[in-house]
């Protein structure tokens, strides 16, 4: 069943690996952390801008690949983005659709497409719990 966690989101991971290759080819950094590859620096900022020029994205998770503006951002958002990796392991290739559906439901309910998305709420909760654990 362990293999399934990698196979299920594989098409999206492969897309992430192409972007990681562009980051690496542009002088960026690629490092493995846990079961994800973190790609940062180089063309990472421009690629994030291309994905959504209006949202000012700092990092995005694509299957088992995390694309972050720079290594500092990758470290700061690590707990949050790795929560998205686990969400990809659960939802696989349909995760982006589930994510967008959750954003749509949030907006219909009068909330925020990002902050009130159930997947983001889980990621922020895990991040907050991690920060609390460091402080105590
Ligand atoms: Zn997030």
Features:
alpha+beta; globular; 136 residues
Number of domains: 1
Separation of the first and last Cα atoms:
35 Å
Structural class: alpha+beta
- Outline: globular
Gyration radius (Cα, Å) is 15 Å
Say which molecules are bound, naming each kind only once: zinc ion
Helix-residue proportion: 55-70%
Low-pLDDT ranges: none
The total of beta strands comes to: 4
Blueprint (SSEs and pairs):
Elements: H1 2-7, H2 10-25, E1 29-33, E2 36-40, H3 44-51, E3 59-62, E4 65-68, H4 71-76, H5 78-91, H6 95-108, H7 118-135
Parallel strand pairs: 2-4
Antiparallel strand pairs: 1-2, 3-4
Helix pairs in contact: 5-7
Zinc ion binds at residues 80, 84, 120, 123.
Give a written overview of the molecule.
This protein is α+β, with helices and mostly antiparallel strands. The protein has one domain (2-135). The protein is 60% helix and 13% strand. The chain has seven helices and four strands; from the N terminus they run H-H-E-E-H-E-E-H-H-H-H. The chain has helices at residues 2-7, 10-25, 44-51, 71-76, 78-91, 95-108, 118-135, and strands spanning 29-33, 36-40, 59-62, 65-68. The chain has a four-stranded mixed sheet, sandwiched between helices. Helix 5 (78-91) packs across helix 7 (118-135). The longest helix has 18 residues, at 118-135. Bound molecules: zinc ion. Zinc ion (ZN) binds at residues 80, 84, 120, 123.
């Amino acid at each position: 069943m362990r293999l399934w966690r990698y196979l299920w989101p594989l098409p999206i991971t492969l897309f992430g690996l192409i972007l990681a290759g562009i980051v690496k080819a542009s002088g960026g950094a690629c490092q493995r952390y846990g079961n994800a590859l973190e790609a940062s620096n180089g063309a990472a900022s421009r690629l994030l801008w291309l994905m959504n020029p209006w949202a000012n994205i700092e990092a995005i998770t694509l299957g088992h690949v995390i694309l972050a503006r720079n290594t500092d951002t990758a470290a700061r958002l690590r707990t949050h983005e790795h929560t998205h990796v686990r969400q990809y392991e659960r939802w696989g290739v349909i995760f982006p659709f589930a994510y967008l559906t959750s954003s749509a439901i949030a907006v219909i309910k009068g909330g925020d497409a990002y902050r009130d998305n159930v997947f983001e709420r889980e990621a922020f909760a895990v991040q907050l719990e991690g920060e609390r654990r460091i402080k105590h």
